[in-house]
User: What shape does this take?
Amino acid sequence: MESLIAEEFSTPYPQSVRLVTVKIRDLGEVKKMDAGDAQLRPGDRVILDADGDVTYGVAYSEPALTPFIPPMRVMKRILRKATPDDLSLIGRLEQLAREAAAYCRTRAHELRVRLKLVEVYGALQRRQLTVVYTSDQRIDFRELVRDLARRFGGRIEMRQVGVREEARRLGGIDTCGLVLCCASFLTEVKPVTVKQARGLGLQVDDPGLLGVCGRLKCCLMFEMMEAQGTVSSPAQGLINPTRSAPDRSS
Assistant: This one.
């Protein structure tokens, strides 16, 4: 661990970075990534690493040269612009994902497997389909997996996620009118617990404190940081903007 830390701090920061906005598998909100030397235009497919898997994304902007700020060291970098072979494979995988999602919904209903599909996608480097889902209860999906394997071949991975992760993957607009924090800029979601919210004097049963996922909003952590005095003064105005919003009732 000490050697990794030493290596991190021994590497000089660059003067600038070429940022490009990308949607992973063209789903959810755009993410800012390091474009490297790739020449990109909106709509281009790119190959990248997401959650330990080599997958693809879609560029939604041209790379823009931006001054480097040290926290950017955690920003992911695209691996390359998609080649013609990559584009052919991506097209097949997108068609396969659509067919698998439709089949999975139908068979789950027939088998009375109570799950909600979040995403189905194929792997670029191996014969594998990943089925991402949420469920309120423990389910037996063995027969569903066998049916999927017989129909589409290859390995079937069933990946259960929570409602917060579902919101992060799909994105959306919250009641504040802004894009979800978890889907736009948070690299790690550490939600405020009910106990912590009560410690802030908040009414945890207030529907206004719940995000689109049905859980306490991630942005409550900024409330907690403010209460602890760990938020710098320039950031104070970003916390609870609705408190300072003008009264438009008149």
In short: The longest strand covers residues 16-24. The chain has three domains: 10-82, 87-161, 173-239. DSSP finds seven helices and nine strands in the chain.
